[in-house]
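Figure-free illustration: sequence to structure, shown twice.
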Amino acid sequence: MWKTKKRGARRWAAACLAGLAAWSLTACGAEGNPPMNLLPQEKEEQQVVNLFSPMEKTDPGVENVARTASDLTVMMAEEQLGVTMVYRTYTAEDYQDKTYDEVILERARNNMDDLYLLNPDVILALGAEGKLMDLSGLDSAKNLRDIIRVANTVDGKLVAIPQEVVAYGLFVNKDMFEQYRLELPDTPEEFLECCRVFKENGIETPVGANRWWLETFVFAQAYADLYNGGNTEAEIAALNSGETRYSDYMRPGFEFLQELIDLGYIDAEKALVSEVIEAEGPDFLAQKTPIVMAYWGAANTETAYGKTDFEMQVIGFPSSRGQMPVMPMTGFGIGADAENRENAVKVLDIMTSDAALQVYSETNRVISPSKNVKVDCVPALRPLNERIEEGIYVLGSNAGMSVEQWGNTCLIVRDLLGGASVDECMAAFDQLQDAALANS
């Protein structure tokens, strides 16, 4: 999710170097004379925790709800512990061609910060390298939903804890569906029929897409049975051992995307070069495109789809088991060798406590990772939320799988958009699996 951010408001934390002035004056003393201590020493050294994260605000002057929600929990930790959180932030302008993930891998491997907000692919990579602390001993970890533990456990260690459960769904213009007497689709076949009707009625591109999120369609079809068929652990074990192939799971989703492209329901060339929401958002809001895909929070903010001139609903992606939410996991991790890791642990324990998560979830109106925290969602999100509360979803990332899912699938979907065949895409998954087996 975070690698898509191309703009950001900067928040700089000023570092106060206590004693610098005293050192300068002392250095100027006459040779042979004892230096005079002109400034009193602080009684206690300031306690800091360095946080590296992206910035949420994408448009100047617009209230940033997600940033505010996180800041409120940071303030709780600062007040209770007497520490200062120092923000170190990513912007594309600072790092040019490097993505957020690439930057954070470099920083974490070199112990440049204490606390990190991590994407799922980075959680798996750093967890496997032993660069992240085991957080299972935190008090807040006892309250986590099972899905969080599954997705963020690497080699038996819980290496990341989020402040929200990120859920992706289809954002649909319900008015347009009703105009053409269409039911909201449950299965891939029903989805294709809806697109056909829209296309025949002059809607040039029924599905607005970008270069990041089309993998959600793939995950919904690939893992609907794996996560909802009652045999999850055994199926994942078979994948990790090489007994079954990731490509066999992925093929139906890629064939479905190829059909959407071939029929003109998705503009592959445009999607390949489009950033999220910036490209497909205007047509969706203008009611030229009836279907887009986005994450839960996009329904809560006016900078995305939180204010429409039509009735919007957010539903799951089409699958053999009906509308299917797709849930990748971001999370906060602490460097195993971080300079201030002891304070970072205390800070994170407060930031992810039930009290803090209640504040965060109510402010940001999101799904909480704690099984004890419930928050009402906006009406548009209720169809998606109902499925999640029923325990019906697939994970877009799972640190227990030998092949990283979210990032790799995104890149291979881009190959498809660029003209690669489905067979070539499946060969790419086989190569990833073979490499993982060779390293196991």
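We now fold a second protein in the same way, so the two outputs can be compared directly.
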Amino acid sequence: MDVIYLFKNSVSVQTPFYCYDPELFRALVRGGGFWDKYNRAFTFNHGINAEILSKNIFVPCVLVEETSGSLKVSNFFEHSLNVAPNITPNNNENIQKPVNHSVKNCGSPFDFPASMPLPEKFSEYWRAKLEAELRSRKYSMRTRRAYIYYNRLICRALQKSPEEIHPDDITQFLACMEKTREYSASSMNLAISAIKFFFKYILKKDDINEHHRPHQDGRLPVILSKEEIVKILCMEKNPKHRLLLMLVYSSGLRVSEVVTLKREHIDLSRKVIYVRQGKGRKDRSTLLSEKAAIFLKEYYNFFDTEKWLFPGQPLSHHLSIRSAQHIFDKALRRTGIHKKISIHSLRHAFATHLLESGTDIRYIQTLLGHANVRTTERYTHVARRSALNIKSPLDSVF
């Protein structure tokens, strides 16, 4: 049987909720509860009577006071609840020990990872040490943020400080990441790298062995046709926005690369775009199309591009990645194309259309900035077979 625990302190009485039950929520409101969205908990006045509340909502309630002893609440991994001996229910004495410390059993203890009303266990001291170590090795800002995020996440999820975490805890944490299906295989691999780095270089522990890394999901990209690309570009009337989409497709740029372009990165005479500090902090060059070059010359006459080719707000900053994605989404909606795609799909289309036109895959690899040609080879699975001179045997039968 499920039990609601009411935690009483000197100010109020609260009970946390990790999933949504509309019927029960309405009953708790009628019982005098106030929903605290930030802390994801119902708050009651100090004089709440657990026995009366139990009868009103038809769910057993247990009142736990600060002085009643220790209480181990179920954590990230749905462990059973251990209640101190002097805590007894206010009614229904034959209540079984609950699986979850709040509301009805609804699968996972909380919505992982977005809203976790759990105290932080990864202190500022450890965060500063980790960031200093990462900076000393010249890791990119994006990698630094990811490593800090995953180390903070495991500590908060386990409710343990870094010193208290053991190898088995890490295995459980990764298993729960997979169970909730909120993270892709690449995200799980990044989490493993982040945790290993912290334990090896910050805690100086050698007992964290290499975990089996999950295989990448074998998903193929959704490809836009050339006709669909034309539709998207024609639907975008804002010249700044149209140029941004045009460059992503015509040069195969990542969205993080196109928003950080500067005028000095573009050589109009040689029709080349220089990508500075792309993924993996690597420079590369890619092609600039004739039509994009003509559009760029007109763009320079009307827009201030002293610092950024695509300035944001304020003008001293470049356009954000989120804004670029929003630009693409709006243009896509106007076309009526019903495909689950993002602005990155323009880069996929660039590679696929080059492959279909007979461009050598090694050149495409260089233009995209792929470290391994196997990454580029996936476009052979989505290229039109007719363009690659591959015919179905059915066509030769008749």
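Summary for the second example: The chain is about 40% helix and 10% strand.
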